[in-house]
Design goal:
Number of helices: 8
Number of strands: 0
Structural class: mainly alpha
CATH topology of one domain: Tetracycline Repressor, domain 2
Shape: elongated
Helix content: 55-70%
CATH superfamily of one domain: Tetracycline Repressor, domain 2
């Protein structure tokens, strides 16, 4: 529905009709459109699979960050992050935990290969946070080259 019309024109009865349920079903579960959209965004942001295994921590991390940057650069991705932040402040760590889990998987694999890995918090603070900040506040997204430089700085500091 978001691809068909503007966010502001979507109503609970429209969603219910498309889903084949009554509006009361939607209201009971989510309360309103904003909360439903936040829930959808969280589910979309949740990684459905393990991060790509390229054979190196650097390759894995760059592939994961490229995917994150691609998601956050799209209008839909930006809108989803804003939905999550504006409607689910009672669960602010949920999305951060998704990112932490993906990074932890990458670093666990790297350690098993005997490679140096940065701390999860370092990548969250120095790479993920600036991407999310720019997304939330509608700032221009950092270039792929800039984000890759941030990743490489974290990897260099891990050595």
């Amino acid at each position: 529905m978001l691809g068909e019309q503007g966010r502001a024109s979507i109503t609970v009865p429209m969603i219910a009709a498309r889903a084949g349920v009554t509006p009361s079903t939607i209201y009971r579960r989510w309360g309103d459109v904003a909360e439903l959209l936040a829930h959808v965004a969280i589910e979309r942001l949740r990684a459905g699979s393990a991060p790509l295994d390229t054979g190196t921590v650097q390759g894995d991390l760059l592939a994961w960050i490229d995917h994150l940057l691609d998601e956050m650069s799209s209008e839909l991705g930006r809108a989803m992050v804003r939905d999550v932040v504006s409607e689910t402040m009672s669960k602010p760590t949920l999305c951060a935990q998704f990112a932490r889990n993906q990074l932890s998987a990458i670093f666990h694999r790297g350690k098993a290969r005997g490679q140096q890995v940065p701390k999860v918090d370092a990548v969250m603070d120095r790479v993920v946070a600036p991407i999310v900040y720019r997304t939330i506040f509608g700032l221009p997204m950092a270039s792929q080259a800039t984000v890759r430089d941030w990743v490489k700085a974290c990897l260099k500091d891990a050595a």
